[in-house]
Amino acid sequence: MAYPADLKYTKDHEWIRIAGDVAEIGITDYAQQQLGDVVYVELPEVGRQIAEGDSFGSIESVKAVSELFAPMGGQVIEVNPALKDHPESVNSRPHESWMVKIKLADPGATGSLLDSAGYERLVMT
User: Fold this and answer.
1) Is there a contact between 59 and 40 (Cβ–Cβ < 8 Å)?
2) What is the pLDDT of residues 86-108, one digit of tens each?
3) 110 phi, psi to nearest 5 deg
4) At residue 72, does pLDDT exceed 90?
5) Is the entire prediction scored with pTM above 0.90?
6) CA 24, CA 81: separation in Å to the nearest integer?
7) Mean pLDDT calculated for residue range 43-66
8) Opening angle at CA 32, ends 59 and 17, nearest 5
9) Are 114 and 12 in contact (CB under 8 A)?
10) Pick from 59, 63, 123, 45: which is nearest to 88 by CA?
11) How far from chain centre, in Å, is Cα 64?
């Protein structure tokens, strides 16, 4: 799968879509392939502060439970309600199925993130 150029990526296989000072966060196609069929997503409460690299929830598949890590820091302003009843959408539409929206503490702090080409190189090795 091609990794969308409008997203930034982490080495932990999360993506982030930044629009001004708000960002959506989800997991990559590579991550969902490694997990297998997703059966449950645990997400944080709205209002929670998260720092870059913090665990903000977990994702459970038929194979494993994995933590979700924040690509950037900020305050959770929304969680995706559709994932409660349809966690499997992460498998079918990984780059559209955002998990949380955060108000970024520092929208310019993208230095540790990868662009799509850098992420593709990471998962090809």
Assistant:
1) yes
2) 999 999 999 999 999 999 999 99
3) -105, 10
4) yes
5) yes
6) 13
7) 95
8) 85
9) no
10) 59
11) 17
